[in-house]
Structures are given as C-alpha cells and as structure tokens.
Amino acid sequence: MTSLSALTLPDHTQLPDSDGTFVKNLQEHPQSILITDSIKPVLEQLHPDGQYCIGQDSGIYWGLTDPPENGAEAPDWFYVPNVPPTLDGKMRRSYVLWKEYVAPLIVLEFVSGDGSEERNNTPPSQGEGGNVGKFWVYEQAIRVPYYGIYEVAKAQVEVYHLVDNTYQLMKANERGHYPIAPMGVELGIWQGFYQNAELPWLRWWDAQGNLLLTGEERAEVERQKRERIVEKLRTLSVEQLNALGIDPEMLD
Question: How far apart are the first and last CA of the chain?
Fold first, then answer.
C-alpha cells in the first residue's frame, strides 16, 4: 500500500522559484509597478479582509513534470482573489495551483519579441521536449478567466475572456478599453510619462472611464488642490481670513 507521504504533492518551498531566465527589457519592471500601485485601492475595497495575491514575474505551477519548471508558467503580472497574501507568515516563492485551488482571475504578459510565445497554443501532446504553449496553459490548464497580451512596441493590448472553456478575443468599448467585470475596472493603453519614460503604458481605469492613479500621482493631485486653495485664500483680506479662523501667516 502506498504511504500518505509518497502521495504528498510538493508546495512552493519545494519547487524551483526561477527557470534561470531574466527580464527581457527594462520596461517590464516599471510596467508591473505601475499596474500594481494603481490597482491596490480597488483590491483593498474588493478584499477588506486582505485576502488576495499579486504575482509579478512569478511562477504558477499547474502540472507535475520533470523537470518541475516545465509544469510552470511565469506571467509578467497576475492577480488571484480570495487567497491569503502569505503562507505561514512567508511570501510565496511561487503560486502552486494544486495547493491553492484558486486560479488567477487575470494574467498579463508583456511582449518582448514578436508575440508568438504569448499566443502559442501548443498542447502537451504536440509539444517537443515537454514544451507547452503559454496560451494553451492559461486557457486549458489553469483556466484563467482573463488573459491580456500587451505589446508596447505596437501600443496595443489584446484581452481574451474565457467563455465555454475557450478564449474569446474581447472587443474594446467606446473608450478603447477592455472591461474586467469582476474587478469593476477597465484595461487599456495610456500614452504618458512614467518613471522617466514617455511610452504607451498599460493601465487601469474605473468603470466610468476615470484613470486609476498611482500613489505618487494621487499625492501630486492633492498638492495641486492645496496650492489652488491657498491661492484663493491669498485673495482675501486679513479680516476675512480671521473670520474664517485662518492665520494669514500660515499662507506664507
């Protein structure tokens, strides 16, 4: 009879956390920071208990293979709802599907080449040397509801929605965005300046089409509001300021 220990599947501490590759271009890291920073207020509202996980260039183990890395994909960015942010008080080395059971709601890939890798639909039965297509893995193995392929060189993003176990290419709305309904947000391209680079960045908007700002952008908006208020107050007389309980010296 097979012992229970022999049937125990490996967890994130027992699986490789890297396949030895590195980030392919310098834009990928700030892009991940941008979409993580700006979506956090939304996720905090969706998960007041803090039960969610964000992965950035981290492995998702979906199958047991030899070597183990062949059974994993490492999206540039992904979000998993309703799972603890840490395990046993430690950050995950990877996300292990057979231990967590909850699939990511959305995965995003940032294209560095021609996009063929991100659109590769090769199943295990046809893959050479254990290679399986990313598109097939996200659609058929992990079953991620939303899959985004972002190409900065083309200033575009393709978003696929899992419908009846098959990815359907979504159509952009009137704003040129792609609604991610369970999150109450939209995904699209924003041409602008971020971290010393003017590029077509991948960004979030709310359901009304308002750009979701980063913490730094929110702070700058508040600073500009305070400056406008101060300028208006400076047009008032000393008597008017005193009537409002404002010390004129505070405006200097």
Answer: 82
pTM over 0.70: yes
The predicted-structure confidence for 111-154, as pLDDT tens digits, reads as follows 988 999 999 999 988 877 668 999 999 999 999 999 999 999 99
Task: Look at the block and give the residue holding tokens 């680079």.
Answer: 197
Token pair listed for 245: 């309980």
Greater confidence (14 vs 223) lies with 223
Report how far apart, in Å, the C-alpha atoms of 76 and of each of 16, 38, 66, 172 are: 17, 16, 23, 22
**Which strands make up the sheet holding 95-96, listed edge to edge?**
72-73, 60-61, 95-96
Q: What is the CA radius of gyration of the chain?
A: 23
Name residue 109's beta-bridge partners.
149
Q: What is the dihedral of CA 50, 12, 142, 214, to 10 degrees?
A: 40
pLDDT, tens digit, 9 for 90 and up, residues 2-56: 444 445 766 656 555 555 554 567 788 999 999 999 999 999 999 999 999 999 9
Task: Please state whether beta strands 52-55 and 60-61 pair in parallel, antiparallel, or not at all (unpaired).
Answer: unpaired
C-alpha angle with apex 102: 32 to 149, nearest 5 degrees?
Answer: 35
Helix extents (H) in 8-157? 28-46, 97-100, 134-136
What does the pLDDT read at residue 67?
84
Q: In whole angstroms, what is the distance from residue 12 CA to residue 176 CA?
A: 38
- Distance (Å, whole) CA 139 – CA 166: 7
